[in-house]
Amino acid sequence: MDTAALPPTTGRAGAPALARPGHGALGRTTAITYGTYDLFHIGHVRLFERIKQRFDVLVVAVSTDEFNAIKGKKSVMPFVDRFEMVRACRHVDLAIAENDWAQKEHDIVAHGADGFVMGSDWSGRFDHLRALCDVIYLPRTEGVSSTELKQCIRATAAAGA
Ligand code: C2G
């Protein structure tokens, strides 16, 4: 699978916009977000929680192992486990697979998303999607990441705990 080009950086981080009222069926608004969700942690849960404070429905696209290789990421947990854990989260209404960088436009249209939401480490990287829906970057939850968790586990194991 050839590596899809990373979406161009398109400048200023978008200011959080309010969800547009009632664009979906029965006036329900939908948001979509994307990620690896390795070692599913509180930072992921807080993001989903805050998205659902703004939108009625949350669709989460989970990166496949193959796409992670394209992103240059190697997750501890296989896709099937990461997918099932995200789907089990009460804030998540639908989980789908993320296979490549280029699927976002299709997913936004296919799911009638009113908002595309990511954590602030992605600020500005997806502003081009503003043509299709609101693009919102929410502050990351500080002090936790899959990488830090891996380091902590390694250190604990090395200490023989
Ligand atoms: N996140 C967060 N707070 C943290 C860690 C992560 O809010 N402490 C957010 C990230 O900003 C991202 C989401 O959780 O919006 C998922 O993060 P990762 O699993 O690291 O996903 P990533 O590798 O950023 O993949 O096409 C987009 C990519 O698939 C995003």
Provide keyphrases for this structure.
161 residues, alpha/beta, single chain, binds [cytidine-5'-phosphate] glycerylphosphoric acid ester, 5 helices, disordered N terminus
General shape: globular
Query: What distance separates the N and C termini?
Result: 42 Å
Order of helices and strands: EHEHHEHEEH
Biggest sheet strand order reads: 3-2-1-4-5
Q: What proportion of the residues is helical, as a percent range?
A: 25-40%
Sheet with the most strands, sense and barrel status: 5 strands, parallel
Quaternary state reads single chain
**Which ions and ligands are bound to the chains?**
[cytidine-5'-phosphate] glycerylphosphoric acid ester
Strand content: 15-25%
Which structural class do the helices and strands define? alpha/beta
Based on CA atoms alone, the radius of gyration comes out at: 16 Å
Low-pLDDT segments, ≥5 res = 1-20
What is shown here, in short?
30% of the residues lie in helices and 17% in strands. The protein is of the alpha/beta class and 161 residues long.
Structural features, described:
The chain is of the alpha/beta class. The protein has 5 helices and 5 strands, in the order E-H-E-H-H-E-H-E-E-H. A 5-stranded parallel sheet has the order 3-2-1-4-5. It is globular. 28% of the residues are buried. Mean pLDDT is 88; it is low at 1-20. [cytidine-5'-phosphate] glycerylphosphoric acid ester binds next to strand 1, helix 1 and strand 4.
